[in-house]
Amino acid sequence: MKQKVLNGLVVLSSLFGYLEWGDGNSSFLFRAEWEVLAKLFSDPLEALHPFTVLPLIGQVMLVLTLFQKRPSRLLTLLGVAFLFLLLGLVCFIGIISLNLKIFASTIPFLTFSGIAVFTLLRSRKMRENHRDGQP
Fold first, then answer.
1. 8 pLDDT tier (thresholds 50, 70, 90)
2. Of 127, 89, 131, 125, nearest to 110 (Cα)?
């Protein structure tokens, strides 16, 4: 259950990344994602780009884990990795541009995804130790 909650928080926190570009243009990722989804149905070739498709696939993978009895390790790790491609870049942009709003918008995602991966790997190690008879 804990892994499902963490995966849900990873998905939710990924939606609140913040971007700024040009003269006064800005958007949260949930709004940009909505526009990409709309374009995906009206003009798919224009919407297809690794930085739009892979994070979307990552979100779908993590949402799928919410409906599994035991969340898949592979789907969780791939989902977080695909989302990290975009949000890691957004974080990097916030750091190099010294834009605190952009950088701060990625902290919840980085925190929840780090905890989710750490919990997943720790639970795997605990299961292996328990199977081997170690405390």
1. very high
2. 89
CA 10-89-65 angle, 5° bins: 25
| Cα–Cα distance measured from residue 17 to residue 86, given in angstroms and rounded to the nearest whole number | 9
Pair 10, 62: CB distance under 8 Å: yes
pLDDT in tens, 92-130: 999 999 999 999 999 999 999 999 999 988 887 666 666
Using DSSP, state whether 51 is helix, strand or coil.
helix
Between helices 29-42 and 50-65, what is the axis angle to 10°? Answer: 100
State how far the alpha carbon of 111 is from the alpha carbons of 23, 31, 47, in Å.
Answer: 31, 22, 29
Burial class (CB in 10 A: 0-12, 13-18, 19+), 87: buried
Instruction: For Cα atoms 47, 71, 130, give the angle at the middle one, nearest 5 degrees.
Output: 145
